[in-house]
Specification:
It is built from five helices and four strands; from the N terminus they run H-E-E-H-H-E-E-H-H. Helix content is 50%, strand content 15%.
């Protein structure tokens, strides 16, 4: 399953404003850190793995330069554990066949 450019943009936007890295008690949202789009692209390539696996694999694969770039850490080491669940919630609709969030009426069926 691949995402369209619009869906990839939607995923990136959702990540940008909701997911953050935490350093010394400070929260830096991935949109501000310019990491939302790279994470969305990494996730898009892993959708067939399922939501939880895609999130964990993408966070391990995406390497974040620290300082002047001489050190790189997997994004997984900078994301608080509670953010994993939030990221899974964001990704879940994109793992469905339609790639769109379910309608309220869908939930009643």
């Amino acid at each position: 399953m691949t995402l369209s450019a619009a869906q990839l943009g939607d995923l990136s936007d959702a990540i940008a404003d909701r997911i953050y890295v935490q350093v010394a008690g400070w929260h830096l949202y991935l949109g501000d850190a310019k990491l939302a789009r790279p994470l969305a692209e990494e996730l898009a390539g892993l959708l067939s793995q399922g939501t939880a696996a895609a999130v964990r694999m993408a966070l391990e694969r995406l390497q974040v330069p620290i300082g002047a770039g001489s050190t790189r850490l997997p994004l997984a080491r900078l994301i608080p554990p509670g953010q994993l669940h939030d990221l899974e919630e964001i990704l879940e609709p994109f793992c469905s066949d339609t790639g769109r969030p379910p309608l309220a009426t869908d939930a009643r069926d």
